[in-house]
Amino acid sequence: MAVINTEGIVIKQFDLGEADKIITFYTKDYGIIRAVAKGVRKGKNRLSGIVLPFSYNNITVYQGRSSLGRINHLNNIYTFTKLREDLTKMAYASFMAEIVDKVGLESDPNQILFSLLLASFHKILIKESEEIKYVELAFKILILSILGYKPEIKQCVSCKNEILKISTKKYIFDIKYGGLLCNNCTRSEYTYNENRDSISEGSLQIIETILEYGIKSLDKIIISKRQYEELDRIINKFLFYHLDLKLKSLDFLNMIKDLG
């Protein structure tokens, strides 16, 4: 039986029998790990308060031949309690955790993805409710890049020529091919295409800054309402087209957004 010691973030849990839970961690060194927390639903169990969603722990797991391990020891690093107590923060954190659960792999660590999830949770924690949507937007742009779908905003995705930027101009973003089309390639295919959308120079600069500086870029950029709506529409189309995600948390997140 292998013994695994690593850092892990709780991204999902569900009940097993009358007393146990199966906990899904996204870990720094092993990617997805699923393990049983024995007796955690009984009163006064020492694990019950630290296997809650979004908790960040040092974990020791006994891993047998099955892909399902058994938690031997947990040492909490950060509880992220406010992500569970505030409905808005919980909606955004749940959405991010579910995406990582869908795209993460067992025995295939991705420390950049691990760091992105951790940094995003920390940023949600300190942001006011009306600003959390920008964390979600940056998270989606960065996870696309991490998974090999970095939006191409410097050259045409069709002819590969450099895109010349003009501040007052609108550009065409092709969802299927993952980036901008130049004027010549746009004109050569002028029929309506549902996988294309217009995007402003200002929104392109926001994508570029987020890709260069990560989540911390949110401390230095200002995103207008129009730019947010434009970017969120395009990035959502891009994300769901290429990753083919079906997320249970999406309806809840959209309901929270509608409530303002």
Would you mind describing this structure in some detail?
The structure is a single chain. The protein is α+β, with helices and mostly antiparallel strands. It contains eight helices and eight strands. A hairpin with a 3-residue loop joins strand 1 and strand 2 (20-27). Helix 2 packs parallel to helix 4 (132-146) and helix 3 (111-126) packs antiparallel against helix 4.
List the helices and strands and how they pair.
Blueprint: E1 2-16, E2 20-27, E3 31-37, E4 56-63, E5 68-78, H1 81-85, H2 87-103, H3 111-126, H4 132-146, E6 170-174, E7 179-181, H5 183-188, E8 196-200, H6 201-213, H7 225-243, H8 249-259
Summarize the structure.
Helix content is 39%, strand content 24%. It contains eight helices and eight strands.
The coarse overall form would be elongated
Please tell me the overall pLDDT. Answer: 92
Q: Give the fraction of residues assigned to helices.
A: 25-40%
Structural class: alpha+beta
SSE sequence, one letter per element: EEEEEHHHHEEHEHHH
List keywords for this structure.
8 helices, 260 residues, 5-stranded mixed beta barrel, alpha+beta
